[in-house]
């Protein structure tokens, strides 16, 4: 809490010092002023009494006068100032030090509050307030104890001069009770000083001795003294100060609060009510006390006027005390102590005894009065309880000058002034009871006040003393206010009582007493007391509960300071209160304080502080009405405008509105020019602010760029780092990005209007700093100079933000030099609200919002973020592209040609143009318009035979990126090139986003740029394919014996468009045409079609079945060579399957999807070429299926999970190991015989049929094969009770050897001739009695072959 410089006891004694009057003759005053001092000033440093001064109380006890007791010496002509002047002095005292430099920081709960360590303005005001009080008749504290009469040795008759001075001073004291000066005792104690000026040319020491002897003879030896001065012979220059100047602090204090002049008004006007008027009346015009308009005192005697006017003449500045020798100073130092010990204290002791005897005689009090302090404090009666609520005035009860009550009050005041509380307290305590009974309210209040102060000063206080003293003081304050109507005395009591309470830690009680004295009568007094009460609240121990009280009373104090005209103090109070309410969600209170701080700062020309306060009102969350917010905005703009008018070199000021979201700021390097979008034409926009370059999207683009850079720098060692064209909060901004000279650099900002009124901005632009390359230390900015050739700044002419609205804006600059560009702020002209009256003018102020970005915090350090710091590089080519025929709907596997127009709009030629596409299953090819395709990978294509053709396909690794051929391998500035790009759509059905990236380089090494484009397509699946390859059990093809191993390829193809299209009615007109079937394999090629429909056109939901023979090739393919065969379906073979795009797409997908291994039984890739006819368009595409195993069904597309296997009714068959399954499928065989025969069993009992077994080695091993006939039948036996048997008859046998052994070379075949004997007519399965056992040649292990080949034979009775 703020503390006072003075301790409480020192404050009380300084408020009530013993007063001594001084009457000085003109010649004596002249002698003093030779030292640039008057007589009172000359004695001021030496008015302290010695520490060993004592007096005896009426009981004879020796009491010590308070050590360090200081007497106050004043001219007898002094009187309180006139009302206007008193107010002026109080205002001037309170105006001292409005902005203290000594600031302390106090912790209040969870907040920190700064406040001044001292309040010198309050202490100065309090001192002046206590000094200018009128000497009232109800107390003797302001009455003079004695009078020092000073005459010069050069006066003709010093005794007559003394008598004339005293006569003039006391001339009217008997006629007017309010006449000044007032004396403590009558007659007043006089002390006579004969001043001898040794420096005077007419100085005569013997004459001085004679005058001094006359004075002693007239007034007594003890009451006279001779004071020689100005005996210094070695005078120093005026510009040199003596070694010590004891008068400096007193003269400076006198200059800060000058001594009041002589009597300015008539004596009758000097009443306590007149003083109250002086302190409370607020007058606009205050005349200077020395001005000719100041009224004079008509009742003053002529000699006193002369003396006063002479004494109060201003003292010229210069060296003080230069005529005073060390001996002179010592005599000055001893004058007042000698006067006190020889005259004043013995006189005071005598008066104390006299007054005590008088009081005892008149009141009948006990002589033990002065030893009853503890007994009186133990009384249970509350002070003032006998007083009722009278309707009388303070002067309703008066006492004569020699009454016991006044004598007792005079006794208490005299003891109090001498620092003897053990004598003053019993007197005040005894007096208050009689005064309460007599309803003498003014004297009662004064007695209570002094009793409380005396109780505090007692060296040994009873336990109940503090509480009783506090009750006395509260009673005194209430009596002053309610009954006496004298708030000036109540204020004096409260000022002293509050300091006592604060010294005891009773902060709340001190604050309550100070608040009680506030009223509407005096704004200055109320402001000062409210401020001190606020400090008391904050100094209590309940900081969290009383902090708001501190802030509230600071606001009240600031308001009263403002009404009193002390704006600096008002501003300081509001600023201190703001610390309590700011950020505590007290919106209206905070707005009021901020607005007041702004207004006060503006009045005091503290425009930066006013600007900051008004700016906080515009930042966020104000609950004020829109009209009030408009006032806030206009006040802010006017303040900023005034600040700019004073200092035009400060640059663009920072504005509080709009709010710019710097965290989500985006920077785009190389903004393309805007073009109109045409139907079925897509302009490659590159990277835009709408591009989502985070998450999966970012990974896709970085992967495409890495593929392109790797392909372009094949064979080079480099560390890949993607080029950032769009800098976002989620991108890696730890390195400075590179931009190209003469190209746009755009910044996207989100601006928000926090106010409830629309705001208009004009000339919105970016503020930047540019450092040219090769010029270190040179920095160019458009903040100070508008015309710059380094960077062109584009301006947004108008921006209107509605109330509470947010809007994204894009601002651009174009660098014209190579160097480093830093974007620092966004500048604009903020237009004020529309004028509401004719005297208001439209206002607009230029301002800015700083732009700053901060990177992520890693390992305790902030990672740099260079979104706004860009390095400008030399020119580069700039590629623009236009895509024609790029639709939003495709079919899975569709191959689509897209026309691309390329244009180099940059100043440099470009080369090494590469293209990559994502997702990976999307393929693309490119070919310049009008150029021939590259050499076909298909060779040795044979002639058509039985509907198919066979050739050799060279499969080489195709790069993942596409290199675009350019005319001359370079595309010059402003040149164009047209190319065709074939895109094979991905095989994933649904909505899909395709990403296309183009890579190109300039003529400089290791500098490249990218152009990216993405679009979303809807993919429909037109075809459903089911394929299965099984071994063929028929060794003949079209009636001829097969020359090699053969397989059967079964296909089911369905048209799926109507099942997946949104408009099924239009799909009824669609048709799917199967164009051709192709097979790619190392060992197999396509054979003739077994089932060949005439026309394979399918309507929606229709399907067709196709069966092809697949034959093993006798030729061996080299590395990267594959057998390619294709066959038409319902039509003749055409060149579509041998065209360049089809084969390249086949190779790309073949390399991507072929997963055949050495363990695969089949490495066959099926290719289906289809065409879909719609009402308006024709879609062509191709599908591929990889078939790796025999007997496995391959389906595309696969929807969902695989179906669950059927639940077996019987126990499942035992599992067979893969090795055993392979050993049991080494050989396949088939039987050749007639299908039916007629035989006469009556003529011959057996029918003999020739049978030929065809064996085929299906492995790459040499095998020995055992053919066993007449084995037990594998089917059941027909019983006599059965009418029907599910199995063919097996009641036959083979004739000849029943076991034959044959050796088969790898992939070779052989025939075995048998004869079957059939006993009766019927249907027979000739394979039921055959078993084929095989094993590797040279090994004993053999396995029964599990090949099943039913061979039915029908035998009929010949009729």
From TrEMBL:
Residues 378-401 are annotated as: Disordered. Residues 1226-1329 form the TPPC8 C-terminal Ig-like domain. GO terms for cellular component: TRAPPIII protein complex. Residues 892-1011 form the TPPC8 second Ig-like domain. Residues 690-890 form the TPPC8 first Ig-like domain. It comes from the Eukaryota. Residues 1014-1185 form the TPPC8 third Ig-like domain. Residues 387-401 have a biased composition (Low complexity). Pfam families: Ig_TPPC8_1st, Ig_TPPC8_2nd, Ig_TPPC8_3rd, Ig_TPPC8_C, TRAPPC-Trs85. This is Trafficking protein particle complex subunit 8.
């Amino acid at each position: 809490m703020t503390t006072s410089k003075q301790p409480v006891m020192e404050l009380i004694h300084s408020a009530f010092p013993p007063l001594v009057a001084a009457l000085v003759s003109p010649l004596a005053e002249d002698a003093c002023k030779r030292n640039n001092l008057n007589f009172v000033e000359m004695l001021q440093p030496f008015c302290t009494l010695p520490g060993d001064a004592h007096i005896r109380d009426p009981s004879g006890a020796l009491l010590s006068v308070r050590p360090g007791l200081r007497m106050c010496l004043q001219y007898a002509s002094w009187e309180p100032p006139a009302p206007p002047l008193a107010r002026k002095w109080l205002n001037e005292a309170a105006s001292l030090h409005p902005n203290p430099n000594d600031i302390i920081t106090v912790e209040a709960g969870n907040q920190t509050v700064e406040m001044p360590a001292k309040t010198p303005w309050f202490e100065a005001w309090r001192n002046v307030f206590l000094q200018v009080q009128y000497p009232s008749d109800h107390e003797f504290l302001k009455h003079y104890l004695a009078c020092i009469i000073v005459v010069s040795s050069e006066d003709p008759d010093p005794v007559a001069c003394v008598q004339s001075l005293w006569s003039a001073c006391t001339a009217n004291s008997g006629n007017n009770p309010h006449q000044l000066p007032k004396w403590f005792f009558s007659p007043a104690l006089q002390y006579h000083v004969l001043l001898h000026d040794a420096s005077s040319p007419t100085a005569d020491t013997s004459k001085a001795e004679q005058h001094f002897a006359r004075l002693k003879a007239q007034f007594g030896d003890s009451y006279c003294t001779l004071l020689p001065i100005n005996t210094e012979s070695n005078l120093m220059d005026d510009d040199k100060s003596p070694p010590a100047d004891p008068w400096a602090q007193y003269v400076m204090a006198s200059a800060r609060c000058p001594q009041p002049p002589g009597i300015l008004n008539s004596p009758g006007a000097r009443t306590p009510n007149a003083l109250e008027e002086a302190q409370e009346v607020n007058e606009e015009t205050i005349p200077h006390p020395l001005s000719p308009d100041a009224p004079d005192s008509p009742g003053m005697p002529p000699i006193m006027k002369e003396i006063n006017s002479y004494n109060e003449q201003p003292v010229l500045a210069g060296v003080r005390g230069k005529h005073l020798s060390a001996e002179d100073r010592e005599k000055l130092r001893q004058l007042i102590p000698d006067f006190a010990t020889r005259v004043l204290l013995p006189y005071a002791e005598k008066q104390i005894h006299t007054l005590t005897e008088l009081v005892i005689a008149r009141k009948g009090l006990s002589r033990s009065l002065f030893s009853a302090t503890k007994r009186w404090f133990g009384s249970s009666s509350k002070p003032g309880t006998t007083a009722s609520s009278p309707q009388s005035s303070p002067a309703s009860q008066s006492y004569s000058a020699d009454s016991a009550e006044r004598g007792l009050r005079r006794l208490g005041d005299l003891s109090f002034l001498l620092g003897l509380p053990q004598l003053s307290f019993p007197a005040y305590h005894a007096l208050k009871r009689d005064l309460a009974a007599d309803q003498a309210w003014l004297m009662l209040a004064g007695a209570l006040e002094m009793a409380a102060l005396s109780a505090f000063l007692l060296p040994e206080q009873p336990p109940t003393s503090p509480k009783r003293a506090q009750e006395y003081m509260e009673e005194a304050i209430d009596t002053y206010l309610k009954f006496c109507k004298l708030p000036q005395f109540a204020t004096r009591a409260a000022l002293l009582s509050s300091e006592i309470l604060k010294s005891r830690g009773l902060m709340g009680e001190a604050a309550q007493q100070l608040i009680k004295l506030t009223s509407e009568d005096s704004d200055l007094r109320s402001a000062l007391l409210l401020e001190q009460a606020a400090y008391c609240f904050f100094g209590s121990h309940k900081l969290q509960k009383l902090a708001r009280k501190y802030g509230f009373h600071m606001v009240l104090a600031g308001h009263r300071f403002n009404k009193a005209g002390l704006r600096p103090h008002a501003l300081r109070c509001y600023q201190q209160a703001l610390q309590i309410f700011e950020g505590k969600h007290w919106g209206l209170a905070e707005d009021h304080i901020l607005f007041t701080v702004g207004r006060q700062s503006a009045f005091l020309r503290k425009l930066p502080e006013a600007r900051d306060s008004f700016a906080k009102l515009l930042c966020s969350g104000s609950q004020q009405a829109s009209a009030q917010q408009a006032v806030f905005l206009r006040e802010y703009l006017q303040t900023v405008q005034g600040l700019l008018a004073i200092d035009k070199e400060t640059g663009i000021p920072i504005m509080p509105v709009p709010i710019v979201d710097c965290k989500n700021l985006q920077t785009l390097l190389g903004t393309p020019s805007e073009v109109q979008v045409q139907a079925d034409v897509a302009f490659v926009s590159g990277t835009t602010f709408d591009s989502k370059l985070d998450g999966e999207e970012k990974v896709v683009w970085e992967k495409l760029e890495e593929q392109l850079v790797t392909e372009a720098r094949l064979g080079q060692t480099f560390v890949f780092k993607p080029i950032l064209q769009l800098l976002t909060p989620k991108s890696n901004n730890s390195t400075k990005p590179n931009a190209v000279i003469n190209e746009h650099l755009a910044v996207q900002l989100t601006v928000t209007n926090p106010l409830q009124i629309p705001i208009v901005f004009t000339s919105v632009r970016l503020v930047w700093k540019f450092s040219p390359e090769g010029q270190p230390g040179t920095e160019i900015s458009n903040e100070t100079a508008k015309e710059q050739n380094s960077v062109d700044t584009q301006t947004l002419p108008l921006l209107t933000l509605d109330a509470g609205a947010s809007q994204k804006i894009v601002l651009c600059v174009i660098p014209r030099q190579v160097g480093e560009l830093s974007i620092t702020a966004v500048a604009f002209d903020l237009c004020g609200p529309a004028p509401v009256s004719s005297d208001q003018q439209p206002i607009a102020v230029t301002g800015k919002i700083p732009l700053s970005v901060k990177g992520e915090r890693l390992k305790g350090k902030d990672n740099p973020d260079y979104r706004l710091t860009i390095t400008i590089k030399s020119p580069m080519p700039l590629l623009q592209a236009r895509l024609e025929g790029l639709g939003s709907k495709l079919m899975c596997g569709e191959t689509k040609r897209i026309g691309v127009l390329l244009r180099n709009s940059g100043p440099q030629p470009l080369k090494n143009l590469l293209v990559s596409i994502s997702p990976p299953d999307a393929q693309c090819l490119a070919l310049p318009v009008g150029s021939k395709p590259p050499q076909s990978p298909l060779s040795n294509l044979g002639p058509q035979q039985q509907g198919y053709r066979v050739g050799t396909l060279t499969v080489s690794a195709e790069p993942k990126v596409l290199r675009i051929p350019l005319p001359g391998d370079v595309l010059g500035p402003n040149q164009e090139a047209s190319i065709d790009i074939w895109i094979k759509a991905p095989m994933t059905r649904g909505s899909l986003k395709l990403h296309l990236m183009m890579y190109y380089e300039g003529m400089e090494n290791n500098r490249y740029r990218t152009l990216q484009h993405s679009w979303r397509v809807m993919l429909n699946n037109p075809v459903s394919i089911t394929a299965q390859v099984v071994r063929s059990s028929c060794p003949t093809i079209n009636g001829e014996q097969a020359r090699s191993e053969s397989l059967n390829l079964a296909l089911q193809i369905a048209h799926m468009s109507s099942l997946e299209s949104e408009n099924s009615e239009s799909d009824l007109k669609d048709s799917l045409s199967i164009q051709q079937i192709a097979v790619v394999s190392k060992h197999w090629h396509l054979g003739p079609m077994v089932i060949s429909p005439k026309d394979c056109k399918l309507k929606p939901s229709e399907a067709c079945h196709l069966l092809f023979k697949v034959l093993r090739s006798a030729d061996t393919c080299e590395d990267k060579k594959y057998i390619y065969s294709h066959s038409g379906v319902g039509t003749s073979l055409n060149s579509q399957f041998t065209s360049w795009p089809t084969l390249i797409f086949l190779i790309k997908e073949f390399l991507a999807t072929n997963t055949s291994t050495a363990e695969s039984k089949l490495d066959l890739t099926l290719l289906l070429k289809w065409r879909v006819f719609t009402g308006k368009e024709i879609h062509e595409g191709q599908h591929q299926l990889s078939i790796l195993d025999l007997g496995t069904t391959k389906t595309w597309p696969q929807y969902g999970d695989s179906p669950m296997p059927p639940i077996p009714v019987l126990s499942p068959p035992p599992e067979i190991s893969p090795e055993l399954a392979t050993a049991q499928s080494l050989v396949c065989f088939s039987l050749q015989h007639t299908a039916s025969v007629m035989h006469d069993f009556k003529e011959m009992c057996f029918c003999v049929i020739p049978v030929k077994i065809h064996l085929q080695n299906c492995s790459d091993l040499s095998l020995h094969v055992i053919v066993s006939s007449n084995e037990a039948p594998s089917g059941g036996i027909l019983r006599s009770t059965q009418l029907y048997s599910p199995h063919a008859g097996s009641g036959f046998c083979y004739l000849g050897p029943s076991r034959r052994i044959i050796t088969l070379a790898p992939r070779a075949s052989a025939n075995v001739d048998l004869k079957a004997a059939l006993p009766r007519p019927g249907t027979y399965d000739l394979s039921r009695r055959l078993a084929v056992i095989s094993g590797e040649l040279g090994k004993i292990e053999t396995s029964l072959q599990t090949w099943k080949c039913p061979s039915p034979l029908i035998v009929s009775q010949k009729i």
